[in-house]
Amino acid sequence: MKRFPVLVVLSLVLVACGQEPVDVSGIPDLEVVTVEEFETHLQSLDKPAVVNVWASWCIPCRSEAPLLNVAVEAHGDQVEFIGVDVQDSQTGAKRFLAEFGLDFQHFFDRDRSIPNHYAAFGTPITLFFDADGQLVDTHQGVIDERGLALGIDELLAG
Amino acid sequence: MEFTLLWAALTGVVFAWIGTRLWPQGLPERATDRLIGAAAAGLLVGRLTAMLIQGTNPLRHIGDIMIVRGGVHTGAATIGAIVTYLWSVGWRIAYLDAIAAASVLGLAGWKAGCIWRGACLGAVSDLPWAWSLPGSVITRHPVEIYAVIALVLAAFIVARLSDRPLLRSGVGLATAGLVMLATEPMRPSLTGGPGPWYIAAIIVGVVASIAGSTLVSRFRLRMT
């Protein structure tokens, strides 16, 4: 009977250490873009954009990912959602996308030149752009539901 | 930057501590410590529940638990906090009633922490007292300030209620739920907010405050 708690703890540790199998075979490599190409893309959208800067190694980005899916579902028709994967590998990025099912456009920015261009540091970052592609607001660090909803509301009301 | 949440939590603790000083009658020893412990346990339960709902396994991603901004389930957090507090005082209902007003005041403090977090604003408004975000021309309801004012009033009302079992805690839960439900439409949200949980809090609070004596005898909860 005394061994039972030990067995429970060992089982939990084994479960915690286990690697989740993720199939990334169906996911293409993320498109590599320059800052200029990124800006041109934003201006061509004709609607506001929310740009989330993430990386597969970034623990806080994991907590934001489900929220982004909710936001896309709620406002995907009014606002463009774009992901920018920084300082990462294509394999890591694809594993992350497969795990969270982030079904919107993502760019690959190994040198993090895009967030640097907007003077945004750290990861994650959420950038809010108006329909002209002009940066309206920058949220550095983890964004919560309230902050994201308010940022989107500002874009739509502006 | 992420420390703004800690500042908000500290504001909640200060408000709760003030509550225990304003209304010390019948409190257990180290009441503020128990309240903080219960709030922390509730936060953990709420965070774990939110992670499970979002499809993240807390055992495989232990570090994610710390990212409170990723979401905390309101209902689970409330239940976790109440159960933890009751456990810490040996399931004595009188201690739950004694802490009710201070808890509502603590919730008001947590809401007042929106000032540190820059998260006070809600729906667009052109009322004279509406605020705007830095750099924005759009003015908005300071919805969390409304909630703070209403919760402070509720705390004083709860403190003045009689000692009948579960009356203060029931009314405290119901009024907190009512304030949050009334202000919820003014909060920008992606999911519609935890409205059903606020309604549940109101119903449970009203039922508990009406049927308190019966519940106490049936579940053999201790009064003192």
Would you write up a description of this structure?
The complex is a heterodimer of chains A (158) and B (224). Chain A has six helices and six strands, in the order H-E-H-E-H-E-H-E-H-E-E-H. With 158 residues, chain A is α/β, with parallel strands linked by helices. In chain A, strand 5 (125-129) and strand 6 form a beta hairpin. The model of chain A has no long low-confidence stretch (mean pLDDT 89). In chain B, helix 4 runs antiparallel to helix 6 (143-159), helix 6 (143-159) packs antiparallel against helix 7 and helix 7 (167-183) packs antiparallel against helix 8 (195-218). A two-stranded antiparallel sheet of chain B has the order 1-2. Chain B has one domain. Chain B has 224 residues and is mainly α. The mean pLDDT of chain B is 92. The longest helix of chain B has 24 residues, at 31-54. The termini of chain B are far apart. Chain B is globular, with a radius of gyration of 18 Å. Chain B has helices at 4-22, 31-54, 74-88, 93-112, 114-117, 143-159, 167-183, 195-218; strands at residues 131-132, 139-140.
Let me know the number of strands of chain A. 6
CATH topology of chain A: Glutaredoxin
Secondary structure: number of strands of chain B:
2
| Strand content range of chain A | 15-25%
Please provide the ordered H/E string of secondary-structure elements of chain A. Answer: HEHEHEHEHEEH
Strand order of the largest sheet of chain B: 1-2
From the 3D coordinates, which CATH architecture of chain A would you assign?
3-Layer(aba) Sandwich
CA-based shape of chain B: globular
The whole-angstrom Rg of chain B is 18 Å
Catalogue the unreliable spans of chain A. Answer: none
Structural class estimated from helices and strands of chain A: alpha/beta
* Most extensive chain-chain interface: A-B, 33 and 29 residues
Helix content of chain B: 55-70%
Order of helices and strands of chain B: HHHHHEEHHH
Q: What topology, given as strand order, has the largest sheet of chain A?
A: 1-4-3-2-5-6
The structural class of chain B is mainly alpha
How much strand content do the residues of chain B show?
under 5%
Contiguous helical run count of chain A: 6
State the helix count of chain B: 8
Oligomer, anyone?
heterodimer
Largest β sheet strand count, sense and barrel closure of chain B: 2 strands, antiparallel
